[in-house]
Amino acid sequence: MKKLIIIILICTPILSFSQQTDYKTYDKIVDLIELGNLEKAKKLTLKLIDKSEGWNQVHLLMSNIYFKEGDISESSNSFLSAYPENEVESALPIFLMGEKYFEAAYYSAALQLLKISENLLKQNLIEWKNSDKKNKHSYAGEINKNKRLITNCQFSIDAMKNPLEFKFENMGENINTENAEYLPFISADDEFFILTRRMEKEGMIDQEDFFISYKSENEKWQKQTPMSINTLKNEGAITISADEMFLVYTACDRDGGIGSCDLYICVKTENGEWSDAMNLGNVVNSKAWDSQSCFSPDGKYLYFISNREGGFGGKDIWRTELTRFGFSEPKNLGENINTKHDEMSPFLHHDNLTFYFASKGHTGMGDYDLFVSRRENTDSDWGTQENLGYPINSNKVENSLVVSSDGKTAYFVSNNSGFGKEDIFTFQLPKEKRATEISELEKEIITQLEGEEIILENVLFEINSFVLMESSFDELGLLIDYLKKNLSVKIHIEGHTDNVGKKTDNQILSENRAKTVYNYLYKNRINSNRLTFKGYGESKEIASNSTEKGREKNRRTSFVIKR
């Protein structure tokens, strides 16, 4: 970035020139700057300014010297000596310099220049509109960009004055290597972690593969190992549905591909292995670039990045619905998420209400920043995005954020103090940026296959009674919370007993217990069209009734999700 600024300082076109120019001294100063002899360069430059009135290029030398010394304010002032802020021709150079200061995170200096260039650009626009001459150059676009950069500068200055608590640590040698690791994925139950690794070998084409790490009994990540789905070609950006039935990743330039990069899917087979990858087809994939997907925790949607036509511009975030007939036509997530610039690395947290992504277009600190958007329930639109703040974000690239089920433990990619190139780091999100921690009940719901029984372990009744014990209300409250945010979910409530007593009495008791749970949910504003119930008596045992422990397991209240 500093190189870019130095180039502008030396090479930007100048508005006026002196007839007498000491090019020999000028070249000597340039050499001194490159050698780092700034003190001598500064003395010669001051002398050259005194004897070369009107030669504005010399002021750029001084601006360059101040910049190298770290005095950005004086560097900016010297730059303005070369480009007077009262001349309309200065608009574009001042704007370009302000843009470069912003990119280098010198926000105050950038703001000073951008405010000047904004006024000059507006003046240029007025003169152009009032002129009879045809001017191919339109200032409207630069004015809008200038305004956006001013907003970014003001945000960045404020963010740095109010930093968030942020301490990150490398995930260690069980995850990271001397190669580049990126695009992390964490399972809904936090039990396994997947990354994409780019392996570089001299004289060979770089290879991208997936590596997986499992959590040990002491809650530590074990040594990562290559996944069976890897091929001799490149694979990247993996996502797996919460029930672990579907796996989607990105592959580029494959035989039979639809665009430059496509999404491919693997399905879990009966023996627990992944099927061969299949292209998701031209309903989901386009002739453009499609990549970086993530499943919603309920398995209903697949979110992904695409620069296809019909978006807001650049790379946008889209989603497609997984129906019983396959994936539906993708829909754009809308203006609260997407901009005319690029968005990347979508991640929908397991609470199904908190969405993280990276963007170049929303107000930020430069390049890609990380953002969060929230919604009230799964039928709501995504709310206005919020920048994750400083120092999580900076003027550098921040992306590929994923968050564990506790809503606070985050993982991201950085090339800062790692084992080699990009590494994966972890940190605790500030409270106001966290997702909602999901309960063990919700974790079980989203990781179960459709139609599998989910037992309410703490919903209990007195012996031979269908009156709920007070200890049952906490778990029923968790179920109510889940149903209130997942409005499309329907459940079938089941009552079960052991085989002690008359079969008829057990049938009636199980029916009444299931109905009691149904009534409790209904009274807590869960619509009756989302609820059904039935008593099964002793007909669906899950353990032997020959022991008290087995009979205790059979006396249960449970439910089945109907998505």
Describe what you observe in this structure.
This protein is an alpha+beta fold and 563 residues long. It folds into three domains: 2-161, Tetratricopeptide repeat domain (Serine Threonine Protein Phosphatase 5, Tetratricopeptide repeat), CATH 1.25.40; 169-433, 6 Propeller (Neuraminidase); 450-562, OmpA-like domain (60s Ribosomal Protein L30, Chain: A), CATH 3.30.1330.60. It contains twelve helices and 25 strands. The protein has helices spanning 2-11, 23-35, 38-51, 57-69, 72-82, 91-103, 107-130, 140-161, 440-447, 473-485, 503-523, 548-554, and strands at residues 169-170, 180-186, 192-199, 207-214, 225-226, 236-240, 246-252, 261-267, 278-279, 290-295, 301-306, 316-323, 326-327, 331-332, 343-348, 354-359, 369-374, 386-387, 402-403, 409-414, 423-428, 453-455, 490-496, 531-535, 556-562. Helix 11 links the parallel strand 23 and strand 24 (531-535). Helix 3 runs antiparallel to helix 4 (57-69) and helix 4 packs antiparallel against helix 5 (72-82). The protein is elongated and about 110 Å long. It starts with a helix and ends with a strand.
How are the SSEs placed, and which strands pair?
Elements: H1 2-11, H2 23-35, H3 38-51, H4 57-69, H5 72-82, H6 91-103, H7 107-130, H8 140-161, E1 169-170, E2 180-186, E3 192-199, E4 207-214, E5 225-226, E6 236-240, E7 246-252, E8 261-267, E9 278-279, E10 290-295, E11 301-306, E12 316-323, E13 326-327, E14 331-332, E15 343-348, E16 354-359, E17 369-374, E18 386-387, E19 402-403, E20 409-414, E21 423-428, H9 440-447, E22 453-455, H10 473-485, E23 490-496, H11 503-523, E24 531-535, H12 548-554, E25 556-562
Parallel strand pairs: 23-24
Antiparallel strand pairs: 1-21, 2-3, 3-4, 4-5, 6-7, 7-8, 8-9, 10-11, 11-12, 12-13, 12-14, 15-16, 16-17, 17-18, 19-20, 20-21, 22-25, 23-25
